[in-house]
UniProtKB/TrEMBL annotation:
Name of protein: ABC transporter permease
Primary localisation category: membrane
Family note: Belongs to the binding-protein-dependent transport system permease family. FecCD subfamily.
Record-annotated membrane-spanning stretches: 48-69, 76-94, 100-121, 133-155, 175-196, 223-248, 292-311
GO molecular function ontology, one term from the record: transmembrane transporter activity
Keyword list, A-Z: Cell membrane, Membrane, Transmembrane, Transmembrane helix, Transport
Biological processes per GO annotation: siderophore-iron import into cell
GO cellular component: plasma membrane
Length: 317
C-alpha cells in the first residue's frame, strides 16, 4: 500500500492539463519555467494536502467505527463535519474569511459538535449507547446544518455567499504551502496519537465490562483517541471544505484488505485514504477545464464503492 501511495503521488505530480491533458515530460521541466512553478508551487502542496486529508478522514472514520462498535459511523454522523462547516461559514460571514481564522473556527466548532453530541447522548433515556450517540449526532448535525443555511441566507450574495458555497462543496483549488503548513502540526500530532494507540483500539472496541476487567481506563483512552480523530477531521475540513464518504468507505475497504485487527487495519486505512483522495483530486482537476468540486466526486465514488462492498458476500475478519 505504501509503494502504491508513492507511485500514485509521483504520477499525480506530473498529471494535469498544462500544456496538454496528460503527463508532463520530466525533460520539459528543464525547459519550461512555468511548468516548474506549476509543479512546485501548486501541485506539490495540493498533493501533500490531499494525502493528509485522506489519511485524516479515513483514520478518524476507522477509529470512530471501532470505538462506537458500529461500522456505519463516521465524523459526519456525529456532528463534527457540520459543526466545523458552521464555524468556517460563520467566520467567513463575520470577518471575510481570513485563512487562519477559518481554520481555527472550524477546529473549535468541530470539537464542540462532538462534545454536544456526547452531552445529548447522555441525556437520552432509551436505547443503547451507540444508538443514543447516533441519534444525538443526527440532531446536532441538523442543528448546525440549519445554522449554515441561515448564514448563507444572511451572507452577501456577491462577496460572501460564493466563498461559503464553494467551501461547502469541498475542493483543494486554493491550497498553498501556507495552507499545508498551517494544519501540518495538528494533523501530524493527531495521526501520531492514533498510530500509537492503534493496538489499544482492539480493547476499546469491547464492552465496558470486559475492558474494565482487563484493567484498561476505557473512558480516558476513548476520549484521547476521539479528540485526536476530531482534531484531524476538523483541521482537514478547515482547508478543504466538506469532504464526504471518505471516513465511511475507506475503513470498510481497509477491513476487507487487512482484517478487523486495528494494528493492521488503521495503517491500511491511512494509506488507502491518501490514495483514494489523490485519485479523486486528479479526476476533479483533469476531467474538465473547469474544476469539479472534490466533495461531489468523493460522494459519488464513495457511494458507489460502498454499495459494491455491501453487496459482496466475502468478508475478511
Amino acid at each position: 500500500m505504501l509503494i502504491l501511495l508513492l507511485v500514485v503521488f509521483g504520477l499525480s505530480l506530473f498529471l494535469g492539463r498544462y500544456p496538454h491533458v496528460g503527463l508532463i515530460s520530466p525533460a520539459q521541466l528543464t525547459e519550461d519555467p512555468l511548468a516548474q512553478r506549476l509543479i512546485l508551487n501548486l501541485r506539490l502542496p495540493r498533493l501533500i494536502a490531499s494525502v493528509l486529508i485522506g489519511m485524516s478522514l479515513a483514520g478518524a472514520g476507522m477509529v470512530m467505527q471501532m470505538v462506537f462498535a458500529n461500522p456505519l459511523v463516521e465524523p459526519g454522523f456525529l456532528g463534527v463535519s457540520q459543526a466545523a462547516a458552521f464555524g468556517a461559514a460563520l467566520t467567513i460571514l463575520a470577518s471575510g474569511g481570513v485563512g487562519w481564522q477559518v481554520q481555527f473556527s472550524a477546529v473549535i466548532f468541530g470539537l464542540a459538535g462532538l462534545f454536544l453530541s456526547y452531552l445529548l447522548a447522555r441525556r437520552v433515556r432509551y436505547g443503547g449507547w451507540v444508538l443514543r450517540l447516533l441519534l444525538a449526532g443526527i440532531a446536532v448535525s441538523a442543528l448546525f446544518a440549519s445554522g449554515v443555511g441561515l448564514i448563507k441566507y444572511l451572507a452577501d450574495p456577491l462577496r460572501q455567499l460564493p466563498d461559503i458555497t464553494f467551501w461547502l462543496l469541498g475542493g483543494l483549488w486554493s491550497i498553498t504551502w501556507r495552507s499545508v503548513l498551517s494544519v501540518l502540526p495538528l494533523i501530524s500530532l493527531g495521526l501520531l496519537v492514533l498510530w500509537l494507540m492503534r493496538w489499544r483500539l482492539n480493547l476499546l472496541a469491547l464492552d465496558d465490562e470486559v475492558v474494565f476487567s482487563l484493567g484498561v481506563a476505557a473512558n480516558r483512552e476513548r476520549l484521547l483517541v476521539l479528540l485526536a480523530a476530531v482534531a484531524v477531521t476538523a483541521a482537514s475540513i478547515s482547508i478543504s471544505g466538506l469532504i464526504g464518504w471518505v471516513g465511511l468507505l475507506v475503513p470498510q475497504l481497509a477491513r476487507r484488505l487487512s482484517g478487523a485487527d486495528a494494528r493492521d487495519g488503521l495503517p491500511t486505512a491511512f494509506l488507502s485514504g491518501g490514495i483514494f483522495m489523490m485519485i479523486c483530486d486528479n479526476l476533479a482537476r483533469t476531467i474538465s477545464a473547469g474544476e469539479i468540486p472534490l466533495g461531489i466526486l468523493t460522494s459519488l465514488l464513495g457511494a458507489l464503492g460502498f454499495v459494491i462492498l455491501m453487496t459482496r458476500r466475502t468478508y475478511k475478519v
